[in-house]
Amino acid sequence: xxxxxxxxxxxxxxxxxxxxxxxxxxxxxxxxxxxxxxxxxxxxxxxxxxxxxxxxxxxxxxxxxxxxxxxxxxxxxxxxxxxxxxxxxxxxxxxxxxxxxxxxxxxxxxxxxxxxxxxxxxxxxxxxxxxxxxxxxxxxxxxxxxxxxxxxxxxxxxxxxxxxxxxxxxxxxxxxxxxxxxxxxxxxxxxxxxxxxxxx
Length: 200
Ligand SMILES: NC(=O)c1ccc[n+]([C@@H]2O[C@H](COP(=O)([O-])OP(=O)(O)OC[C@H]3O[C@@H](n4cnc5c(N)ncnc54)[C@H](OP(=O)(O)O)[C@@H]3O)[C@@H](O)[C@H]2O)c1
Known about the structure:
- Helices cover 35% and strands 21% of the residues.
- The chain is an alpha/beta fold.
- It has a single domain, classed as NAD(P)-binding Rossmann-like Domain (Rossmann fold).
- The strands form two sheets. Strands 3-2-1-4-5-8-9-10 form an eight-stranded mixed sheet, with helices on both faces.
- Helix 3 runs parallel beside helix 5.
- The model has no long low-confidence stretch (mean pLDDT 97).
- It binds NADP nicotinamide-adenine-dinucleotide phosphate (NAP).
- The site of NADP nicotinamide-adenine-dinucleotide phosphate has 22 residues, from helix 1 and helix 3.
- One of its GO terms (molecular function) is oxidoreductase activity.
- Keywords: Oxidoreductase.
């Protein structure tokens, strides 16, 4: 599968390395001229022939970037891994929530893209092939397009994840809040190797 990852930060590089090891053809869409070890291209060029696009930029930059690429994203599966983090003086908080979400804002910015919220509830080190004593953790998904969610779910299952679909893109409100629970546990314990698991 040809994958374009928007953002060359920790998440972009972790996904690029992990999926390349699984045999996927990955390019990072970035403002940077080069990123060691990875193929890069300007964002509009990177997404052009992609089977799957991942949004992995800072939350405050997500909507503007997606809006600038909207035509290129028409019909494409767009995995939104971002969180609307506001790094204020009193610790991280969400800059949108409860009655709206960054996932919904991203979908509105590119109405013809098939947005799937995923990968935002776990640290980048566990995103591909998580190996935890409690077995495969659960990745929660949200999105309006069942086929897009199936495609992302297949990728997740092939890379070590159990999958739980929470429904339409508006469920991003709860996935983005879950990020805060993940961060709060890490900050309290000083450990960052945890992930959620849905028992059923
Ligand atoms: N770190 C984690 O473990 C983790 C886990 C789950 C979700 N997330 C979420 O995933 C996203 C990326 O996190 P990260 O840790 O990879 O962040 P990071 O290492 O700080 O990298 C930030 C990325 O944002 C991009 N960016 C910053 N300002 C931009 C702008 N004005 N326009 C376009 N792109 C801009 C940069 O893209 P360039 O390549 O163009 O420089 C860079 O790749 C965030 O929304 C974060 O909340 C992070």
